[in-house]
Amino acid sequence: MAEPFNRFKLSAAERSFRSRIAQLASGQWFLRGTLSDRSSKCGKPNCHCASGETHRSVYLVQSRAGKLRQICVPKAWQDRVRQAVSDYQQMQRLIEEVSELEWTRLQERKP
Ligand SMILES: [Zn+2]
């Protein structure tokens, strides 16, 4: 029979992971993937990129259903996307911590 969830039985450490998760979940964007800064030449002979100052762009690269996909991140979106990528990673680390604690409870048969 499943023990009902009781947050008062959690350790202080686990409560703190969980409240950080709740904080992030309610107030942040999330985006999974890796940012890639690229520079390129457009090929136009008179463009500034022909003489060395290349065009810079940022792409978000993500693996989905076993395939890589990528999307260009416009300048106006870059701060938001960098933050969303970083918050996604932090959320993942926090959930992993909570999962690990539950693994230990299962292993020790201590609900
Ligand atoms: Zn160019």
As residue ranges, the low-confidence spans are: none
The computed structural class is: alpha+beta
The counted number of beta strands is: 3
Please trace the helix and strand order, writing H or E for each element. Answer: HEEEH
Largest sheet: 3 strands, antiparallel
What is the mean predicted local confidence, pLDDT?
94
Shape, please?
elongated
Distance between the termini: 11 Å
Helix content: 40-55%
Proportion of beta-strand residues: 15-25%
Bound molecules: zinc ion
What strand order characterises the main sheet? 1-2-3
Radius of gyration from the alpha-carbon trace, in angstroms = 22 Å
Count the helices. How many? 2
Architecture overview:
With 111 residues, this protein is an alpha+beta fold. It has a domain at 32-85. 42% of the residues lie in helices and 22% in strands. It has 2 helices and 3 strands. It has helices spanning 12-27, 78-108, and strands at 34-40, 55-64, 67-73. It has a 3-stranded antiparallel beta sheet with strand order 1-2-3, covered by helices on one side. A hairpin with a 2-residue loop joins strand 2 (55-64) and strand 3 (67-73). Helix 1 (12-27) packs antiparallel against helix 2 (78-108). The protein is elongated, with a radius of gyration of 22 Å. The model has no long low-confidence stretch (mean pLDDT 94). The structure holds zinc ion. Zinc ion binds next to loops. The site of zinc ion has 6 residues, from loops.
